[in-house]
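User: ok so my PI wants both of these folded by tonight, can you help

Assistant: No problem, let's get them done. Here's the first:
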Amino acid sequence: MFKKGVEARSHQRLSGADRKKLKRTVKERFPRASDTDVDALLPPKVEIKVSKYQN
């Protein structure tokens, strides 16, 4: 009846290897995207966090 607020269970930093894998996946899925476009989406010096939420 009433919706509960959404809360993250855990937060983790994305490791360097996982960051590279994510960039590679983006390039595979979007072949027309240039390296500049991918760097705009996932800047090289910015910390990326992974959050897990319950369903």
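One down. Here's the second:
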Amino acid sequence: MQSQPIKRVVAGALAAAAVITVVSVGTPAGAITLPAPQNPPTNSADALAQYRAAAQEAEKLNEDKLKAQDDYNAKQADLAKANGDLAAANQRLQAAQAEAAKFQVVVDQFADASFVSGAQMSRMSALLTGTSAQDFLDRSSALAVLAEDKNRAMQSYLDAVNAAAAAAAQATDARNRAQAATDQSAQLLNDLNARAAALQAQLDQLRQLSSRLTAADKAAQSDTGGAAPGLPAPTSAAQTAVNVALGKRGSAYVWGATGPTTFDCSGLTQYAYGKAGISLPRTSSAQSTFGKAVPRSELQVGDLVFFGSPVHHVGIYIGDGKMVHAPDTGDVVKISPLQNDYSGARRVAY
């Protein structure tokens, strides 16, 4: 019979494992000395200025919505991974429990066979009960084999118990991560819906303001900014991105659009650099952490330039203090001076 301390330890480990259940979140070449930055007009009596101010606010809200969407998608991926880990851990747990149960039968048999009529099986008992020296050797050899089998069975049993305990711990961790991801996903979804509602309200305001725009105002919005400086980029990838973006001048700004015919600000930069073989994150805030930071005094053609704090707008620097960008709703992809709320630059092709 197996000793009670061993059985209690094993039974406790297996019981703890069994409670886990599945849950289903120097200035370099090409650097340009910049002129004083400019902004669009801000006279509140100017209908176009009011429209542009409202459109810029809508762009910020759109950026917030895109970021909230990215956060939600990332948390959904976390949830899927946690549930996958949980299912795998429970499969390992069930297999380990079955293995432990199998070897427990063997261990119990050895334990029961260790005592026969009150006499422990040992080489001494073999000597005392043997009828000859050869009989003793034969019995000793058999006992050695039995002891080896017993030790092997016991080790296999303990390995299975330890594997069950490890799988139980992994399942507990995965279950906790899945629950946390579920809760956080719900919060992020609420945030996403709130930001989408705020953006829609701003778009409604923009539609009202658009009725006040004159033909001259609308022509100003359609202006593509004149000729590009024509300065070369330092790398072929950067040059490709610049050329692609410049080739999209006149394309309409549309929230959430990533090309090939309409764009928002980060959609244009992502599209242009995608054609150069460089994959950028979706939002301007995420792009503002991509690549390496560049001081304003060292800007080169092809660098991403960012605006706002937190970042809400991005363009591609083309030299001479100018950028190509998708400004905001009602506007088109164009060349513009860098704006007053410049907040940094990143080099993604080097």
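The mean pLDDT is 78. Helices lie at 4-18, 47-113, 123-129, 133-210, 215-222, 236-247, 265-275, 284-287. Good luck tonight!
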